[in-house]
Amino acid sequence: xxKRTMLRPWRLxxxxxxxxxxxxxxxxxxxxxxxxxxxxxxxxxxREIFMQDGVFAVTLRDAGDDRAIGCIGLIRGxxxxxxxxxxxxxxxxxxxxxxxxxxxxxxxxxAVIRYxxxxxxxxxxxxxxxxxxxxxxxxxxKCGFQYHHTNPATYFPLTDDVxxxxxxxxxxx
Length: 173
Ligand SMILES: CC(C)(COP(=O)(O)OP(=O)(O)OC[C@H]1O[C@@H](n2cnc3c(N)ncnc32)[C@H](O)[C@@H]1OP(=O)(O)O)[C@@H](O)C(=O)NCCC(=O)NCCS
What we know:
Helix content: 25-40%
Strand content: 25-35%
Shape: globular
Number of domains: 1
CATH class: Alpha Beta
CATH topology: Aminopeptidase
Order of helices and strands: EHHHEEEHEHEE
Structural class: alpha+beta
Number of strands: 7
CATH superfamily: Gcn5-related N-acetyltransferase (GNAT)
Number of helices: 5
Distance between the termini: 23 Å
Radius of gyration: 15 Å
Bound molecules: coenzyme A
């Protein structure tokens, strides 16, 4: 729980709201995945990817309707996309376009960072963003992450293109 958001596990019944936001081409491609093409695909992604430890639906406390409007995940060790140790985690996130620019993801990130360090006892948190994704770079900067390294241009099958990824780091103090 944060001032304005509530983070909770994903449910299959979130498929409709997930589709509403994740079908927008301004969300997935910059994050490395294709826009969702049907509610059925959104349901499958909830089942296969989102229903795991550390992946949360972002909801708005004030809305009072518990709708999922974004996603934030903390994935540990070998399950992460990055080559990291078991006591490290990677955070990834997105939020529906109508909710951009209110600082909601940085607010949710702060809670996930506390969860990672204080509850899971992780030593290090990592975040990546693709070259040109200034919004995501700013989120990481605002949350205290520091630039660590840049991966060489790599082919990404999900988006069928070659991308340069920048990786940033936050160590437990
Ligand atoms: C990146 C993202 C999660 C930011 O979430 P957010 O809750 O809007 O975060 P903020 O409100 O702190 O905004 C972050 C930056 O985005 C930019 N921004 C915000 N609203 C914007 C808008 N409507 N249009 C263009 N840029 C905008 C600003 O540069 C802002 O930085 P600032 O605080 O220095 O002005 C969101 O833009 C998103 O979901 N993007 C698509 C998916 C994605 O990139 N995920 C990350 C993959 S690594």
